[in-house]
């Protein structure tokens, strides 16, 4: 390889190929010198090294002609090894470029990956070379034929999100070629895409695909970090989900997946983990950030030998530091502009908003995103909590953000298991959680509603287990949440009892119906539409196997059909996905409000009824004339009116339909005692209907 060395440029950071060579740029404020190492395609032999002598501000840079895409490289960074003052430089450790667009493989666990001598404390400095055990960064070529690809731009209030895992979704799919199962290529395969289209979802929210680390203790147990919430490369699609190669091919394969999903009108949202890295606490490995500039990249404690930990993982990225904030913003822009993704769900987002110790919704992180012309225009979803004090911030994020609504999850679970709770909260959650989101010019679509997520029971397990069963995780069932707000319907785990199984099926339909008929943005977890189980494991983060993967041979076809019809009902009727809040005011020219709550005798509910903690049934009228929004052509949106009856009692309740002011006639189109959505008969105003125990009835105006 004939090369020529030039000074290069400090921007852009990372390795940038221009057709003739590569510019390398690495940010390190406290480094004393930096070396660039090149490796052959086998990832085993060092073929060249270069001392980087140019430094502009805090960026070390060099340009080398003759280098092409596919080249493997890493850095060695010199500086003080002084943990007591926050510095952990060790040039014996080869380091991954934080801006690497691809990473060649995964970590091969060895004591050499630690900057200190294993067996001693972290103040000792280890001299073993880590290069044989660490994956290398890859020079990539950004060129890709996107053709006519463009983002679907589905309005948030019309979105239906499907949370899934790239590998788990297709690893066991019999109709996808075996050689690509569990990869980006499989996720973009026509079989997978046709399933998603028929289901009716508008976006896939992918569990982390940023290159991540499986912790050593999991590897030693024969487990893995399946969920991937342990990022070590914020620009690199993880190589484990690549069917095409490890030297940059994974980037093109990811782009092909996005392109295929976009052609089907489906958006791609990434679950991103910018709150911490996979390097852990002071006893963790030195793989990248720690060895490049520990004192800059991480939030250090008052004693800088240690880390502030708002994430439960040992460290927290320092978003107060401009270069770290820039890295996160560069990463987000890269995934939007170069990889064409449509939005992000931010793991433990409260940790990103901590200025000192307290969460500050006006922090620099939000300021920078809000003013960014690229990132501010995509879907931004926060997981609005971390483990630190004051970290539970549901409803506290600024305009432009949606949030995982944990209060919705808890309330809906409590309601259907019959727990004592204020009926007022259930009404709030059903109508978009205005108590949480109405301020700051936010709308109902700020609430991402979910009953289950990757973390916790599946929907099937929610109605089948009272207790977690995490023995397979190897932690004596001590891990995972113990308070699940679940009910096994009378027996723990699978049973042949037809009465229990029938009740479980109805309870699942109740929760799915509540989810898709609530205002806000529904999120469905992959497999919940057809009865996927994790055998009671509510913390399957380390189970890269049949516990977590979707089993396509064990599908509850009736539940799948019911879910498809529910999603179609929601998408066809704008009354269930309003863009604006209910006002509770009469519609012009009528005496009928946009929403009305009723008692069983068809009288309207008064204030004192909302305070009854024993109430478990209610009826709500949704006025199709009261949507108060216009379509893209400026025409008023009008829909049919609907009457919803909820009964979480263990006994039947009779309800009288409202008088003719609300509708002369009604068609019952949904009854969760049945596994389909169809015409169940016609009714007149004032008729009495029986609402069976633990069920929902839905009537549509004629």
UniProtKB/TrEMBL annotation:
SMART domains: Aamy
Protein name as annotated: Isoamylase
Family under the similarity heading: Belongs to the glycosyl hydrolase 13 family.
One annotated GO molecular function: isoamylase activity
Record field: transmembrane: none
Stored SUPFAM superfamilies: (Trans)glycosidases, E set domains, Glycosyl hydrolase domain
Glycosyl hydrolase family 13 catalytic domain segment(s): 163-570
Organism domain of life: Bacteria
E.C. designation(s): 3.2.1.68
Broad class of enzyme this protein falls into: hydrolase
InterPro entries: GH, GH13_cat_dom, GlgX_Isoamylase_N_E_set, Glyco_hydro_13_N, Glyco_hydro_b, Glycogen_debranch_GlgX, Ig-like_fold, Ig_E-set
Keywords assigned: Glycosidase, Hydrolase
């Amino acid at each position: 390889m004939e090369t020529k060395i030039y000074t290069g440029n400090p921007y852009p950071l990372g390795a940038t190929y221009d057709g003739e060579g590569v510019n390398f740029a690495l940010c390190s404020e406290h480094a004393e010198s930096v070396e660039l190492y090149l490796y052959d395609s086998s990832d085993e032999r060092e073929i060249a090294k270069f001392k980087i002598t140019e430094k502009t501000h805090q960026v070390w840079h060099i340009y080398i002609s003759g280098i092409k895409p596919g080249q493997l490289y890493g850095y060695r960074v010199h500086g003080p090894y002084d943990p007591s003052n926050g510095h952990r430089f060790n040039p014996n450790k080869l380091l991954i470029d934080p801006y690497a667009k691809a990473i060649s493989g995964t970590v091969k666990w060895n004591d050499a990956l630690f900057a200190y001598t294993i067996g001693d404390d972290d103040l000792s400095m280890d001299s073993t070379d880590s290069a044989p055990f660490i994956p290398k960064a890859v020079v990539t070529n950004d060129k890709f034929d996107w053709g006519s690809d463009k983002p679907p731009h589905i309005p948030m209030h019309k979105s239906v999100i499907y949370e899934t895992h790239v590998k788990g979704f297709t690893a066991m799919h019999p109709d996808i070629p075996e050689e690509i199962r569990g990869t980006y290529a499989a996720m973009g395969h026509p079989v997978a895409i046709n399933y998603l289209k028929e289901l009716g979802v508008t976006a896939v929210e992918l569990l982390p695909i940023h290159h991540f680390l499986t912790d050593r203790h999991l590897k030693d147990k024969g487990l893995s970090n399946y969920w991937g919430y342990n990022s070590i490369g914020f620009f690199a699609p993880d190589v484990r989900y690549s069917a095409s190669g490890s030297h940059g091919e994974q980037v093109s394969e990811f782009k092909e997946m996005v392109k295929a999903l976009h052609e089907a009108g489906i958006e791609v949202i990434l679950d991103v983990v910018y709150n911490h890295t996979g390097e852990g606490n002071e006893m963790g490995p030195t793989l990248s950030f720690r060895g490049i500039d520990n004192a800059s990249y991480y939030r250090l404690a008052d004693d800088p030998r240690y880390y502030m930990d708002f994430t439960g993982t040992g460290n927290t990225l320092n978003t107060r530091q401009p270069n770290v904030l820039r890295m996160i913003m560069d990463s987000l822009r890269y995934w939007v502009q170069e990889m064409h993704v449509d939005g992000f769900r931010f793991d433990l987002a409260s940790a990103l908003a901590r200025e000192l110790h307290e969460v500050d919704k006006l922090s620099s992180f939000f300021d920078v995103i809000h003013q960014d012309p690229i990132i501010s225009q995509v879907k931004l979803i926060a997981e609005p909590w971390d483990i630190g004090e004051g970290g539970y911030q549901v409803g506290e994020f600024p305009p432009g953000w949606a949030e995982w609504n944990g209060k919705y999850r808890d309330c809906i679970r409590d309601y259907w298991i019959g727990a004592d709770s204020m009926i007022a909260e259930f009404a709030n959650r059903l109508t978009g959680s205005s108590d949480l989101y109405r301020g700051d010019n936010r709308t109902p679509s700020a609430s991402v509603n979910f009953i289950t997520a990757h973390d916790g029971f599946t929907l099937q397990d929610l109605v089948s287990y009272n207790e977690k069963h995490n023995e397979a995780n190897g932690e004596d069932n001590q891990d995972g949440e113990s308070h699940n707000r679940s009910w096994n319907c009378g027996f723990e785990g699978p049973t042949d009892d037809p009465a229990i199984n029938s009740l479980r099926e109805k309870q699942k339909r109740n929760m799915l119906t509540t989810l898709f008929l609530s205002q806000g943005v529904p999120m469905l977890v992959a497999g919940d539409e057809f009865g996927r189980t994790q055998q009671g494991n509510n913390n399957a983060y380390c189970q890269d196997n049949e516990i977590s993967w979707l089993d396509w041979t064990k599908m509850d076809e009736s539940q799948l059909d019911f879910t498809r019809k529910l999603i179609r009902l929601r998408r066809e009727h704008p009354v269930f996905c309003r863009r604006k809040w209910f006002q509770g005011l009469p519609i012009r020219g009528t005496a009928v409000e946009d929403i009305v709550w009723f008692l069983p005798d068809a009288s309207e509910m008064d204030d004192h009824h909302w305070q009854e903690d024993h109430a478990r049934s209610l009826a709500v009228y949704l006025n199709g004339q009261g949507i108060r929004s216009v379509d893209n052509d400026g025409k008023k949106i009008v829909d049919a009116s609907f009457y919803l009856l909820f009964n979480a009692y263990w006994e039947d309740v009779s309800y009288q339909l409202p008088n003719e002011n609300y509708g002369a006639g009604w068609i019952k189109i949904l009854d969760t005692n049945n596994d389909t959505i169809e015409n169940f008969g016609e009714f007149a105003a004032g008729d009495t209907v029986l609402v069976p125990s633990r069920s929902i009835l839905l009537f549509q105006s004629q």
